[in-house]
Amino acid sequence: MEQIHLFTKKLKPTHITHALSVPTHVLEAFQIPEGTHMMTFEAVDATDIVWSFCLSTRLTGVYTKPVLLRSSWLRFVKKKGLVPNDRVVFFMERDETDEMRSYTVRAQRKVMRLMGQDVWVDVEDLPLYGL
């Protein structure tokens, strides 16, 4: 199976206290059942913990404005100790028939800038860097 990068999101204060807005273009990577506006999916983190997230879209208006609902998202934020300017990265893998999809999530913090490039580390690995 091939790993596909879905999106990377640098966290703002509202992402830490409320919901995580998701780029609209990634909705095609999720199979929201016809006639509904939300679905639950699982994503595995760097420590192989499975997180359940609820993805929801708007019922009215021009834009779907997808978000990860606070009920599922804030548990992840709290457990990972995320703060503004950290980032999350979501990936998807799918089999050849596109019938089975799996997701991974990484919570990362910028630890330095090296040769003009930001260096991001999974938050689980921060103690290894003395941070």
Automatic annotation (TrEMBL):
UniProt keyword Nucleus, yes or no: yes
Main location: nucleus
Protein's cellular compartments: Nucleus
Superkingdom to which the source organism belongs: Eukaryota
GO annotations of cellular component type: nucleus
Coiled coil: none
Protein name: TF-B3 domain-containing protein
